[in-house]
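Example record

One chain of 272 residues, shown exactly as stored in the release files.
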Amino acid sequence: MSEVELTLGGVESTAPENRRLSLVIWAPAGMGKTTLAMTMPGRKALVNFDPDGPSSIPLDILKSEKDSRVFDLSMKEDSFFARLKDHDPFGIEKVIDQFDSFIFDSITSITERTLARGIDITKGATLERPSPGAYAARNNLAINLIRNVLQITGKHNKHVCFIAHEGPPQTNDEGSLLGYTMSLGGQLPSQVAIRINECWPMFEDGKNRKMIICRKSRLRDPAKSRMFDVSKATEFEWVFDPNNWNDPKNMRIDTWFDQWKAAGYSKIPMPI
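Predicted structure tokens for this chain:
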């Protein structure tokens, strides 16, 4: 008796042979977000929207990190960001075979520019008083970009990392601290997080250690990980000497990914 062919949506069932990283790193300025992102696996395309964003990465590292390249879009006019509604606004598919990881620094800057674009096209909206329509345009453009980038890179099994800044402390009417989240505005932090596998806030503790959070804690949300086992701890110290990128003690994302892959994509212990 022949086996019955099972399909859903017109495709047969398959076992996932390849997995990639989709990651958001968010933290205050100076925490090392771009440095950490530049340890993503393989050849890297750093798509920059932050003025002086790549300046924290030494030029020799940009040249030596396995054919990494920087594409600086920080000086583009606001009208440029209207194209974020397109399927592939940056032409990623034209260079997809040249890179293994795509890094976007930062989506905070992207939302600032898309808000400016929303103000330009929304009647009555001003920089001082953006209208609901301007905010809606910002949100739609930003989410559309992230969704399309994830779709394109996922189709080709490429890694992707989005960087975001930490927003100001969230407080209640009495001024009590409620928590921290990504500086994106509105519901964008949660909308971004649900589309991403890894969401890592970073902070500096009282001992001048840079910490990575992998599960909601320290009043920081969103935070999650499919890579690390968070049953016994929610955070770990990130050890990295930016003055010596070749230090064997440096903790790198590509190393963690290789360990995760070797474990058959089962959760791995947090680094110590």
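Notes: The chain has a mean pLDDT of 87.
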